[in-house]
Amino acid sequence: MDLRHLRHFVVLAETLHFHRAAERLHLAQPSLSRSIRTLEQDLGTLLFLRNQREVRLTSAGAALLPEARLLLAQAARTQRLMQDIGRGDAGLLRIGFISSTAITLLPFLLRGFRAAHPRVRLELQEMSSAAQTRALLAGQMDVALIRDMEAGPDIRQHSLLRERLLLLVPTGHALVEQAPVSFSRLVDADIVLLRREVAPGSYDRIWANCLAHGLQPRILMELADSNAVLSMVAAGLAVSFLFSSFAQAARPGVTFLPLQDEMADSEVSLAWQEQVAQQSPALRSFIRLAQSAFPLLD
Asked: Which residues cross the membrane (predicted)?
């Protein structure tokens, strides 16, 4: 059943006059007659009774009319949706992120994207950088915000920002007066760390600095959640290390201190598969937004 024939049927059903219907459709009257006959043949039933004086709908034609209007309206909606998706104005964008980016970076990117593409549906999932990389390769995610990772040859990356590691101590801790703090000052401190899979590069740098200062760190526990780390420090149970972005979200009972010892910055980057971006205008728009807001780092 051809949608064109349905459109012709609806117009003829509304006018009940072949000549007027043909004029509305910008068709020759014989072409309209052929279109209606073809539709009747496809459906196996007469839709109009016609004679020299009038054109009337049959019972089948009367039953078809509301259904035809619904089908044509749905077809028009589907066409508009496909056009919107082709322009990046609709569809689905699946975004992975690490917890630290949810403080300022991710909200900044989402505000800009939503303002330009309000009809694109967003799916957000917090995951470790390694898990996001696996999800990208498996086609389960469109774009990722990852930390301290070279994601591999099949994934494109754009560096967004670099962050320092800061020392977290309970408010009122003796180390507050000694900032910037050397690792050697942590010899008697219980330490809580984020697990290595959350931020492997920073985890390794913390251990390397401890060992370089002859310090065998007293690890009280390793946690997967930065909020749990903050809670442990706020409770006065340990000190810890987190990225400078966390300092922008004040937490009662926690003081962020700079470290005296130089450590390489932690790098957050945007990651995606180029072949996926080629098929997704919404993803390309998100990438352009991030690249424009955060030009390449030196």
From this structure: 91-110, 228-250
